[in-house]
Amino acid sequence: MNVLVVNCGSSSLKFQLINSDTEEVAAKGLCERIGIDGRLVYQPTGGEKEVTEAPMPTHTEAIQMVLDALVNEKTGVLKSLDEVEAIGHRVLHGGSKITESRVINDEVIEVIDECCDLGPLHNPANLMGIRACMKLMPGKPNVAVFDTAFHQTMPPKAYRYAIPTKFYKDYAVRKYGFHGTSHSFVSKETIKYLGLDADNSKVIIAHLGNGASISAVQNGKCVDTSMGLTPLEGLIMGTRSGDLDPAVLEFVCKKEGFDVKEMLRILNKESGVYALSDNLSSDFRDLEEAMDNGNEAAGLAIDAFSYRVAKYIGSYVAAMNGVDAITFTGGIGENAGLVRKKVLEYLGYLGIKMDEAQNSKRGENFILSTADSKVKVAVIPTNEELAICRETVELVTK
Ligand code: AMP
To answer: From the CA of 245, how far away is ligand 1's center (Å)?
Structure first.
């Protein structure tokens, strides 16, 4: 089955056309600057990358350009759009009502709409992408795969904040968690790859990318995760602060004359390892290079990041009263051997031993722990598009 996987941002749209039988990508690309001017980058597998500048006032014109590219006589990969059998959409927020992926109908659209309050940057864009696909490919099934859904199995003791109940009851203020598609995909792959028992396993997934989060997955179900009401909570990230004393907000606002909105922008866009490295970079490749050249702030950023990851892993071992496996994924988790080594050094007390020779590997599934390590450690590349494709096929063939 050919599945078009769509991931809409406010002014962008990423897509992949995946053959679900072979799980191979036939073509992929992205539309940028939607609503500004418009630019399509399109790449058929094995072919040249093409860049087309064309007006894209809304997501509908962007999707139309993607569909035209897919059936283009010279560079297309389909004879006709009839060959697209389903569309899978990445959707950020499903609130508490959505606990799994869903075939899109009026009710699902209503929930995504209601959750715009909780995901103000992404949910409106996700809806635009859904509506555009429904308009341009009428009659085809559309599936929504939610970033929050996998975490809906968390118990109240994990997701409730210790603040007045009114805020929870009236405004749904609680921990939701994000990167759920990745945590779900990688935890399933971990269980398969390491030969664990799906119904009797304790796994911790460290999704370390520019955005970073950790989850504790017991018997295949999420029991805790580090991101919260928004993706700002938890780990130190590329430009996000992660956990901090909420009183910092008022303190700095008063000193600098900022309002809360400005402070939140700084905590999301100008903090994290970027801030700790004295605004050098949010990219670990730059930070490692600078650290090797004696830059102390870059060294501190890498140390603080790794320390926070290790602390979260420790707390999730406590949450599950044990752990069978820890898996690294995401751009940093898959590639940055230095971070993996630093994190695992903190976790020596668990009887974890790292195989140094394995740690130079990247971009593939591999086991990082030695044979006599008490806890297995793996690196498993995430693949959110494939996860969305699999969920879509499962729902439309049910
Ligand atoms: P993601 O958000 O999952 O795409 O991850 C992107 C981040 O991964 C980049 O900002 C880098 O910090 C990190 N990264 C990617 N490649 C490498 C690499 N070869 N070595 C270290 N860090 C890397």
So the answer is: 28
Residue with tokens 């699902």: 108
The domain total for the chain is 2
**DSSP class of 274:** H
Q: What is the pLDDT of residues 226-285, one digit of tens each?
A: 999 999 999 999 999 999 999 999 999 999 999 999 999 999 999 999 999 999 999 999
Q: Which of 335, 341, 360, 362 for mutating ligand 1's site (highest number of atoms within 8 Å of CB)?
A: 335
Q: Which of 384, 397, 356 is nearest to 89 (CA)?
A: 384
* Catalytic residue list contains 147: yes
Determine the 3-state secondary structure of 214 from DSSP.
strand
Q: In this prediction, what percent of the chain has a pLDDT beyond 70? A: 100
Task: Look at residue 375 and tell me if it is in a domain.
Answer: yes
Burial class (CB in 10 A: 0-12, 13-18, 19+), 170: exposed
Judgement on whether residues 104 and 16 belong to the same structural domain of the protein = yes
Residue 190 lies in a domain: no
Is 17 touching ligand 1 by the criterion CB < 6 Å? Answer: no
Tell whether 199 and 129 lie within a shared domain: no
331 C-alpha vs ligand 1 centroid, how far in Å?
4
**Distance between first and last Cα of the chain:** 14
The CA distances from residue 398 to 74, 130, 169, in Å, are 35, 21, 35
Give the pLDDT confidence score for residue 371 in this predicted structure. Answer: 97
Expressed as residue numbers, the domain containing 260 is: 195-384
Q: Are residues 124 and 223 in the same domain?
A: no
What is the C-alpha separation between 117 and 124, in angstroms, rounded?
A: 10
Dist. CA 284 → ligand 1 center (Å): 6
Residues 94-131 pLDDT 10s? 999 999 999 999 999 999 999 998 888 899 999 999 99
Report the separation in Å between the CA atom of 45 and the middle of ligand 1, taken as the mean of its atom positions. Answer: 23
Does any ligand 1 atom lie closer than 6 A to the CB of residue 284? yes
Q: Are residues 118 and 225 in the same domain?
A: no
Ligand 1 atom closest to Cα of residue 338? 21
CA angle 193, 196, 202 (to 5 degrees): 115
Is the pTM higher than 0.90? The answer reads: yes
Model pLDDT, residue 120: 86
